[in-house]
Amino acid sequence: MHFEVNGIELYYKETGQGDPFVLLHGNGENHKIFRALEKLLSKKYRVYAIDSRDHGESTRVKGLDYETMMEDVAGFIRGKGIQDPMLFGFSDGGIIGLLLAIRHPGLISRLIVGGANTHPAEIKMIYTIGFRILHFFSRNQKHKMMLAQPDITKAELNSITVPTLVIAGSNDVVKGDHTAYIAENIPGSALVILEGETHSSYVREGKKLYDTIERFLDGDLKT
Question: Which of 47, 137, 168, 169 has its CA 20 to 30 A from that of 194?
Answer without folding.
Answer: 47
